[in-house]
UniProtKB/TrEMBL annotation:
GO terms for molecular function: 5'-nucleotidase activity. The keyword Hydrolase applies. PANTHER family: ALPHA-D-GLUCOSE 1-PHOSPHATE PHOSPHATASE, FLAVIN MONONUCLEOTIDE HYDROLASE 1, CHLOROPLATIC. Its EC number is 3.1.3.5. Keywords: Hydrolase. SUPFAM superfamilies: HAD-like. It comes from Streptomonospora litoralis. Pfam families: Hydrolase (PF00702). The keyword Repressor does not apply. This is GMP/IMP nucleotidase YrfG.
Length: 212
């Protein structure tokens, strides 16, 4: 549909690894140095507890669980530094994605965000200039649900007041894309910027104002 009107009313974007860049190695190295434990142990513990963090437990509890898994006794100052480094590592934005969001918004395309993210990152993003074009921001920690659980998609569709077949969804994880497709949502797995632009153009979302 690249040359015609759009069949989509709203585009729902994931944040991590779609709008944001993967946490850079220097941020991860800094966390490892602060943690003072074997990197493989730190990241195994971190990812084992991350789902609960994304679902809504507080940062102090998340880092307490990580510390218990790695056998560490971190001071409150150390936990604060780990927390600050972690939050910062997830909010490095892709310039091409930010430009595309401004372009879509300028063309009158409705935008929403659906991210598996803890409250700390959600709070930061609510004040981010890159989030300015979005009419709604949905975060797993605030909803008590994580993608790809079906209830989170139902909630987003209900809140946006849009039909599944007139909703587009962009995410980098296959399981999240497949879950959206089961609802009849036009979902795209993000791999690169060119592929994302092609998907949006196929649905008549690029240059919509010029074609109107």
């Amino acid at each position: 549909m690249g040359s015609g009107s759009s069949d989509i009313d709203v585009v729902v974007f994931d944040f991590g690894d779609v709008i944001s860049r993967t946490p850079p190695p220097e941020d991860q190295k800094a966390m490892q140095e602060v943690a003072g434990v074997a990197p493989e142990d730190l990241w195994a513990a971190y990812w084992s507890e991350r789902r609960a963090y994304d679902r809504g437990i507080e940062a102090v509890e998340f880092w307490r669980r990580v510390a218990r898994r790695v056998g560490a006794e971190w001071s409150s100052a150390t936990v604060h530094e780990l927390w600050a480094l972690d939050v910062g590592s997830w909010i490095h934005v892709r310039e091409d994605s930010a430009h595309l969001l401004d372009r879509l918004s300028g063309d009158g395309v409705r935008l929403a965000l659906l991210s598996n993210a803890p409250r700390d990152i959600a709070g930061a993003l609510r004040h981010s200039p890159v989030m300015r074009p979005f009419e709604a921001l949905f975060f797993s920690a605030e909803l008590g649900r994580c993608k790809p659980e079906p209830e989170i998609y139902e909630h987003v569709l209900s809140e946006l007041g849009t039909a599944a077949e007139r909703t587009a969804f962009v995410d980098d994880r296959e399981e999240n894309v497949l879950a959206a497709q089961r609802f009849g949502i036009a979902a795209h797995r993000y791999a690169d910027h060119a592929g994302l632009e092609s998907f949006l153009d196929d649905h008549g979302l690029l240059g919509a104002r010029e074609r109107a």
